[in-house]
Amino acid sequence: MEFFWYAVIVCMLAVYVVLDGYDFGAGIIHLFFAKTEKDKKAITNSIGPFWDANEVWLIAVGGVLFFAFPTLYASSFSGFYLPLIMILWLLIFRGIGLELRGQIHHSMWEAVWDKAFGIASLLLALFFGVALGNVVRGVNLGMVENGVSTQEAHYFFLPLWNSTFSPKADQLGIIDWFTLLLGIVAVVALTIHGANWIIFKTNSDLNKKLREVVFKLNFVLLLLVIVSLLCWHIIEPEPFQNFIKNPLLWIFPLLTFSGLFAMFKVRTFKKDGLGFLFSSMFLVGGLAATVASIFPKLLPSTNTINPSLTIYNVAADEYGLSVGLNWFFIALILVILYFFIQYKVFKGKMDDIGYGDH
Length: 358
What we know:
The protein is built from twelve helices and four strands; from the N terminus they run ααααααββαααααββα. By secondary structure, it is an all-alpha fold. Strand 1 and strand 2 form a beta hairpin.
């Protein structure tokens, strides 16, 4: 039962990364490449009917985490309290940037909310990549000092960074050179993903330029992925042990690199949706490969005093997990129905949606 709920959370995270990921990427494109009002409208039209629904997946992940793995929920939400609050404010500014921009038609007002939307999108992509880096690297569970655990075995708290900026330090920070590297990977990957979504959903004059952006950024992404894999050996001496034990897991790296290499042909795609399909493959494959590499750990411990948090030692009672199963399938049917209707209504190009017009 623990594995089922673990798989549910991973799948929900993958859906969130794909759906809200194109929102973040569209915001980054809006910040750096949308120079005219027509380009800006094309970008906001492409995500307007979807962005708030996409963010619900993050709330759903938190809800399932609270239900199925309450100890992990308590540990993570206290230990990562500072960056979580920052992410919350960034989500707020990103949302109101989209909603308030069209309330007053003045160049200064519109410029402020354009920047709020774009910068918040960029920082959210960075912070979520850093968050993944923290999960891969692990945390100092129990706040061990000089070989002695000063707190409960599942408790930790991290400042934004430490003085050494090292992922191997005894007292870790949220941001170090390794987690920052994964944050940059996330920014580049989601920028590509957002560009592919805009190409898929609009006939904007920006699309030809975006194809070139995707092609060039793909070289950067490939280099960053290779560097991050090499650096992973510094954090985890045997990062591929789960893949060696279970060769079926290699399907996830294969999915990742298939999507990555396919995007090099973005300039010749006949169908606009292919780029989005392949960037989605890269994101889903990369996330799945990452969680598979640390399984069954959910949050590794960087010390030898307190054990890592796994799907088995932080799960709720078996009875509760079983009862929740019935409600999960009811909720799943409703969610599938909602998204089917939403994407059916807003299928095709969305240049004329007029999102944000007042």
